[in-house]
Write a structure and sequence with these properties.
By secondary structure, this protein is mainly α. It has one domain. The protein is built from ten helices and two strands, in the order E-E-H-H-H-H-H-H-H-H-H-H. It is globular.
Length: 225
């Protein structure tokens, strides 16, 4: 088997795909977390500042998920086909959330009416939280195993995706990105909003620590493999 630096091609692809998806979580995670926290800002000025903080980078960061999908298709086409067919509904919800999130960011400032901006604020926050939650749900299902037949066709139903472990992993991922987003916003704000965000950093950190401990205990007890 051909190797590069003593490592076979499959391992190189595995490392590359892992690095790309890790880069996506790191670089897009903070603006997803900032979006999930958006409705916790009561004042219009605070919401505008939070949006301006991610404005220059949010759309570029999403390129990482496209690169990751392309790398998965190139390196492991069978895995790519199996995952997308198995998680068809979650991935469609994921794409819809990405679309609505982008629309919300772009359309929010087009009209000055309060109801208009509030509508897009809600859409932006819900879609950001849904993306983070779905990423965790998919991760949880992959970790515990997918109900596959011998022909690599998914044999379960959509409700099987929403099992306790997957939901726990999804909430943990959401907590992680909310913590990530609050830390990022702290570095981009000042005065009263900075003070409020320092409290958010503390609260989201506590939330994440609780969730990661619960997920770890559940994994050790029920998923020993």
């Amino acid at each position: 088997m051909a190797t590069i630096l003593g490592i076979d091609y499959q391992t190189w692809w595995f490392l590359l795909i892992g690095a790309v998806f890790t880069g996506y979580i790191i670089l897009d995670g903070f603006d997803l977390g900032a979006g999930a926290l958006h409705l916790f800002f009561n004042k219009e000025e605070s919401r505008r500042i939070a949006l301006n903080a991610i404005g220059p980078v949010w759309d570029g960061n999403e390129v990482w998920i496209v690169i990751g999908g392309g790398a998965l298709f190139a390196g492991f086409p069978a895995v790519y086909a199996t995952l997308l067919s198995s998680f068809y509904i979650p991935f469609m919800l994921f794409l819809m959330a990405i679309i609505f999130r982008a629309i919300s960011i772009e359309f929010r400032s087009k009209e000055p009416m309060l109801w208009w901006r509030k509508m897009w604020d809600i859409s932006y926050s819900i879609s950001s939280a849904l993306i983070a939650l779905l990423l965790g749900v998919v991760l949880g299902n992959v970790t515990q195993g997918i109900n596959m037949g011998p022909d690599h066709v998914f044999r379960g139903s959509f409700t099987e995706f929403l099992n306790p472990y997957a939901l726990l992993t999804g909430i943990t991922t959401l907590a992680l990105l909310m913590m990530h987003g609050s830390i990022y916003l702290v570095m981009k704000t000042e005065n009263r909003l900075y003070a409020k965000l320092t409290v958010m950093v503390r609260n989201t950190t506590i939330f994440f620590v609780i969730m990661i401990l619960l997920t770890s205990f559940y994994t050790l007890l029920y998923l020993p493999h």
